[in-house]
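Weekly structure sync, notes
Attendees: PL (lead), two postdocs, one rotation student
Agenda item 3: pending single-chain targets
PL asked that the sequence for the first pending target be pasted directly into the notes so everyone works from the same version. It is reproduced below exactly as submitted, 72 residues in total.
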Amino acid sequence: MTLPEFADWITFFKAQPFDDFHRFHRPAALVAGSLGGGDLQPRLDWLQPPPDDGLNDADRDLFKAAGFTYRG
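Predicted structure, written out during the meeting:
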């Protein structure tokens, strides 16, 4: 494997981890926690957090106030 390909795998793993913890344990915890009912979206965000776009809430509010739609 070349160094650029390895760097691409590191980037991919950071965005979409494929270890046992993320593939098996977190989904099992999600199922167990969902038995109590409630809103599902926070649990799904916990399972696969949205990508970090480097912006904070103030930045997003500024984009919104200026009429821009930021899609990350």
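Discussion points:
- Residues 3-65 form one domain.
- The chain has four helices and no strands.
Action: rotation student to compare against the earlier draft before next sync.
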